[in-house]
Design brief:
Blueprint lengths: L1 H22 L3 E5 L9 H5 L5 E4 L2 E4 L9 H5 L5 E6 L23 E7 L9 H5 L5 E4 L2 E4 L9 H5 L5 E7 H7 L1
Antiparallel strand pairs: 1-4, 2-3, 5-8, 6-7
Length: 178
């Protein structure tokens, strides 16, 4: 009986102590909003659900983040960087952290992909290549669903007639169009 208790205690300490130490986040990551395309790869890699999407951009919750850097490795666009590294992990609660990638400011332009109807030949290549099925053909013309679009640029790259353009627009003009 004592052997079993000792083994259980060893296992508990072998698992819990590293987790407690690991969870005392000494690294604070931030999203560079201009580089984030909203692909959500970082969200899929985060083991503690510390990353969410707000207005098409990733946001890191510093309270949940354990500093594992899996999100950094997953991001193909170098949009996640180390903001600060605290020398004393116990002081993390006192350190002010910034919620990043808040795209709610209406003055900032946003990136969209726009189909130039006159150029679109209805070949459907962009719709087939779109990883999120954000493009559908309506009346033999490509139409991009802005809610599904992750702004990866594949559609623009595969269009044989350059009918899709990467464009920056004012956020309020997009809302008026909806």
């Amino acid at each position: 009986m004592k052997k079993h208790l000792v083994i259980v205690l060893i296992l508990i300490f072998a698992i819990l102590i590293p987790l407690v130490i690991y969870s005392q986040n000494s690294k604070i990551y931030k999203i560079i909003e201009s580089k984030c395309i909203g692909c959500q790869l970082c969200i899929k890699e985060c083991p503690v659900d510390a990353i969410t999407m707000q207005n098409g951009k990733a946001v890191i919750d510093a309270e949940k983040c354990i500093g594992c850097s899996l999100c950094v490795k997953a991001c193909n666009f170098d949009a996640i960087v180390l903001e600060a590294q605290n020398e004393n992990p116990a002081e993390n609660d006192k350190m002010e952290t910034q919620q990043v990638a808040d795209s709610t400011k209406k003055t900032e332009p946003i990136r969209i992909f726009k189909v130039i109807e006159k150029k679109c030949i209805g070949c459907n290549i962009c719709a087939h290549k779109c990883p999120t099925n954000a493009i559908e053909m309506i009346n033999r013309k490509a139409v991009i669903d802005m809610e599904k679009c992750i702004k990866c640029g594949i559609c623009e790259a595969v269009c044989p007639v350059n009918a899709i353009k990467d464009t920056m627009i004012a956020q309020d003009s997009l809302q008026k169009a909806e």
